[in-house]
Structures are given as C-alpha cells and as structure tokens.
Amino acid sequence: MSTLAGKVALVTGSTDGVGRLVARSLAGGGAEVIIHGRDAGRGRDVVAEIDAGGGRAHFVQADLSDLAEVRALAESVLESTPRLDLLINNAGIGTGGPGETRRTNAAGHEMRFAVNYLAGFALTMRLLPLLRASAPARIVNVASAGQQAIDFDDVMLTRGYSGARAYMQSKLAQVMFAFDLAARLEGTGVAVNCLHPATYMATTMVREAGVAPWSTVEQGARAILNLATSPALEGRSGLYFDGLEQSRANAQAYDAKARERLRALSFELAGLAPSSD
C-alpha cells in the first residue's frame, strides 16, 4: 500500500491507546477510517480529531463481548462502504490485575477468549467477501508475545483460571487464526499477518494490570502500521512479527491439526457455517 488515498480501513478498539494512534495515522495518510469502540463519546472525539486534520472517519459503536453486536458492527461496515482494504483486529482486554477472576459473556464464553479472539474471528469472516473484492487487501491481528498453548479439553478455562493464562491463550488463538486464514486465502490478494506490537505499552490495559510501561504507544503503532501499509510486505502473508522484525510464535501456531481444530471450534462458537475460504 504505497498510498492510502482511496483506501478504507477498519480499526477495532480505536478510541484509545495504540488503536487510536493507528487510526489517526491511517487517516493522516489519506485513508477513510472506520473507528470502533464501546464508548460513543470517545468515538466522537477521535472522529473530530481526524476531521480537524482534514481526514475522513466515522464511528461505529459495538461491545465485542456480545456476538450480536459483532455481527451488527460487520453489517454496519458492509452498509457504509463499497470496499474494505484494511482490517486491523486490535481491540482487546488485558490480563487484569492480581487476583483477576474468571468472567464469561452472555453466551458463556470466557471473556478474554470472546473479546480478544472470537470477536475478531467472527468479524473477519463476515467481512471477508468485501476484503476479497477489494484486493489487494490486508488483515492484521494485533496479538502478543505472551502466548500459551490452547488446552482444547478446557478452552474456556474452567479449571486453573488466571487472567494471564486466559490472555495468553486468546493471543495465541489470534496468531493461529492468522496463519490458518493466510494459507486458505493464498492467491486471493488478501494478506493476513499478526504481531506483538511492543512490550507493555503505556496503555489502559497495562495500567490496569499494575505494570510499569516499558514501551510507548508510538512504538506499537509503528509496528502495526508496518504490517498494515509497508510496500515491502505487499503480497506477503502468514507472518508473525515482534515489533518491526519477523519472528517465531508459540510452537502450537505451526501445528496444522491444532489450527484446524481451532477453526472448527470457532465456527461453532460464533454460530457461523463453516467456510471454504
């Protein structure tokens, strides 16, 4: 994407932190940006910032813990734009503070798995026909270097729960999804990559975990924008980056049977018909 003029991008979780900076940068480069978040006031603020800078953006409100709202978000995008060149699955919740207890959404799904992974899976699959029609297009999953193998006998972590374990499992699921989808989309012009943007950025989720920031949101944004827009990555797919450098994810991400198992489970949990894409 040597130029962003005429491009349309959706950035989930873009009313705060690194997502907000990424959205503003994309708009500054000429893209029309769809801002997403739970808080309408903050969404309006981001749109106003972009408008003031001469960019174009609009806000769509959705709580990604609710799959009905994820579906509504997808439908809003499909109704509002004839193309989608870039999808950045950035929204998420962190490990929480010490003593974080297990929570579930209305469907009974463990909350971090639901928000960090399953929502992005469902959103991506619904928007995939539009992305394919807009090719060359890119999908970027904002994951983490904090990854833990998925226990398929207890995906919802009913035993031995911790916020850190739940977060790391959900982030590995994002990576596995990126690798799996990249292979299935080979030759379509839609590239799917994922990354750990930066370690302990100065974000709300890091502060909530009680951790002193190690990195800035500017560092994380540069890494995300690299996967989203770098001409050097045109046509390259199925990659995992640590910051600006290509790296290796948890070993389970390279297990084809594990990825297939996660795919089948994800379609089931999201209430979607299995796709050949």
Give a written overview of the molecule.
With 277 residues, the chain is α/β, with parallel strands linked by helices. It has a single domain, classed as NAD(P)-binding Rossmann-like Domain (Rossmann fold). 42% of the residues lie in helices and 14% in strands. The protein contains eight helices and eight strands, in the order E-H-E-H-E-H-E-H-E-H-E-H-H-E-E-H. The chain has helices spanning 17-28, 40-52, 67-80, 111-133, 163-184, 204-208, 217-229, 256-270; strands spanning 8-11, 32-37, 56-61, 86-89, 137-142, 190-196, 240-242, 245-246. Helix 3 (67-80) packs parallel to helix 4, helix 4 (111-133) runs parallel beside helix 5 and helix 4 packs across helix 8 (256-270).
Keywords:
alpha/beta; 8 helices; 277 residues; Rossmann fold; 8-stranded mixed beta sheet; globular; 14% strand
